[in-house]
Design goal:
- The chain has helices at about 20-30, 80-95, 115-125, 140-145, 160-180, 185-190, 210-225, 230-240, 275-280, 310-315, 325-335, 340-350, 370-380, 430, 460-475; strands spanning about 10-15, 35, 45-50, 55, 70-75, 80, 100-105, 110, 230, 245-250, 290-295, 295-300, 360-365, 365, 380-385, 395-405, 410, 415, 420, 435-445, 475-480, 490.
- By secondary structure, it is α/β, with parallel strands linked by helices.
- It folds into three domains: about 10-105 and about 230-290, Adenylosuccinate Synthetase, Chain A, domain 1 (3-Layer(aba) Sandwich), CATH 3.40.440; about 110-225, Adenylosuccinate Synthetase, subunit A, domain 2 (Orthogonal Bundle); about 295-490, Adenylosuccinate Synthetase, subunit A, domain 3 (Adenylosuccinate Synthetase, Chain A, domain 3, Alpha-Beta Complex), CATH 3.90.170.
- Helix 3 (about 115-125) crosses helix 4 (about 140-145) and helix 5 (about 160-180) crosses helix 7.
């Protein structure tokens, strides 16, 4: 149903992540033979639901819950062995799910303890200019990859040389941590006491405990030695044998290191083009790309957000523990016109709280400017997720243009003037931070349940009109629609 005649299909996020990709990769995985994670690391959380089982995965591809599938962590991923062994493999074991189908590229880079410390140190040094990192060490790991000093999976199996590499790198990183960033020994000890850093076992009197680190990484490496492969050769063989391959994206296009809202981005390529390099597959072998776009916008952490309902500061005190009921949210939606309150309704109905960080996600109206950009970068085929969240909304808006309210600025060969209308998505946060949603297509909500629709024809007329407006205003083709978290709440648009 999902693959149709395609052999290789990729699923990308079209926004700032958290679009609901996990559900669709799970559903596509049921039809695939091989599922490949191509980029990112444990900063990318996705929730997979199978029956009564709910898994919060960050590294293992979604297809692991399906028997007989090969699940590949590709060369473009930065892998945290602690997360894989101590968290995800234990989750699978607790639910009786076999990890036998897991494969890991020997060329994938490894997240080391100093990556997590450097992540925190740099973020702390930025003050009000913080990027909003998850502090999982992703950026520093990719930085080491680019400067050609990173440690790769294959190196975990030579203990002597591994320990020597750890010693040399630890000494270099300590100079950065204590010298460049001015981290105190007390702060270092506090950060090293985190469970993600072995609760202090890797701290040797204010320095990295080289032998203890080498022992941990050697032990974890042995736990998945059987899964390490040449992933490029594996995929070549799979394609030659006619196997169906699913490329599983992480984060979203607007977080892409090249095409996202720089510098508020991640450190890897989240666009369709990233699949080829991160999985080691020829670009021409990718038959179809789907971009997942939620029926409203979300963003976690810092960074500009033109269609935001409310502000980042206002939502800081919210958490899933004080989440409103759907009835409470419906009542609030009918009795308020306040942007923050409308954003809160969407956030609490959807449960928009981060899988990885637990932070409340910022919410906003659907952004056709951003969606047009996603179509230009990833292709026109779009999956609309979370349509059912809007069931409680009495009216809806789609942003069609921004207004630039900043000072005169040079951007891509042009000088922007205050008050100028912008219809092309600006990928520079210096520009986007001064953009506000200025033009909207407003339409009535449907205020009826969509979760049992089963098809586009089964949706309320206003919901169908909303999807048609997205297609028209963003220049996309809505191929698949989701109206709930369950597998039977997804339908293909003919």
């Amino acid at each position: 149903m999902f693959f149709d005649k395609a052999q290789v299909v990729g699923i990308c996020g079209a926004a700032w992540g958290d679009e609901g990709k996990g559900k669709f990769t799970d559903e596509f995985a049921a039809e695939a033979d091989v599922i490949v994670r191509a980029q990112g690391g444990s900063n990318a959380g996705h929730t997979v639901i199978a029956g009564e089982v709910k898994l919060a995965l960050h590294l293992v591809p979604s297809g692991i819950i399906h028997k007989g599938k090969i699940n590949v962590v590709g060369n473009g991923v930065v892998l945290d062995p602690w997360v894989l062994v101590e968290d995800e493999l234990k989750q699978l074991a607790a639910h009786g799910i076999s990890p036998d189908g897991l494969r890991i590229s020997g060329d994938a880079h490894v997240i080391m303890p100093w990556h997590k410390i450097l992540d925190r140190a740099r973020e702390a040094s930025l003050g009000s200019r913080k990027i909003g990192t998850t502090a999982r060490g992703i950026g520093p790991a990719y930085a080491d990859k680019a400067t050609r000093c990173g440690i790769r999976i294959n190196e975990l199996y030579e203990r002597g040389s591994l320990e020597a590499r750890i010693a040399a790198l630890a000494a270099e990183k300590e100079k950065m941590i204590f010298g460049l960033y001015g981290v105190t020994k007390e702060q270092f000890a506090e950060w090293m006491s985190s469970p993600y850093l072995m609760g202090g076992a890797w701290n040797a009197g204010g320095c990295f405990h080289v032998r203890a680190i080498a022992e941990s990484y050697t032990r974890w490496g042995e736990a998945f030695r059987h899964a390490v492969v040449d992933s490029r050769a594996l995929l070549r063989d799979a394609l030659a044998a006619g196997r169906r391959v699913l490329l599983e994206g992480a984060q979203g296009l607007l977080l892409d290191i090249d095409h996202g809202t720089y510098p508020f981005v991640t450190s890897s390529s989240c666009c369709a083009g990233g699949f080829a390099t991160g999985a080691g597959i020829p670009p021409q072998r990718i038959d179809r790309i789907y971009s997942v776009m939620p029926a409203y916008m979300t963003r976690v952490g810092a960074g500009p957000f033109p269609t935001e309902l409310g502000t980042e500061a206002k939502i800081a005190g919210e958490s899933s523990s004080n989440r409103m009921s759907v009835d409470e949210a419906r009542t609030l939606a009918r009795t308020t016109t306040d942007d923050y309150s409308l954003g809160k309704v969407i956030r609490h109905v959807a449960g928009e709280f981060g899988t990885t960080t637990g932070r409340p996600r910022r919410t906003g109206w659907f952004d056709a400017v951003a969606c047009r950009f996603a179509a230009a970068m990833n292709g026109p085929d779009v999956i609309i997720s979370k349509l059912d969240v809007l069931d409680v909304m009495p009216s809806l808006k789609i942003c069609t243009a921004y207004r630039y309210d900043g000072p005169g600025a040079f951007f891509n060969g042009k000088t922007l003037a205050r008050g100028q209308t912008i219809t092309e998505f600006p990928t520079d946060a210096r520009v986007l931070q001064h953009c506000t949603a200025a033009a909207f297509e407003e339409m009535p909500g449907w205020q009826a349940e969509t979760t049992k629709a089963g098809s586009v024809a089964g949706l309320p007329e206003a919901a169908r009109s909303y999807l048609a407006a997205i297609e028209k205003l963003a220049g996309v083709r809505v191929r698949i629609v989701s109206v709930g978290p369950k597998r039977n709440q997804t339908f293909v648009v003919s």
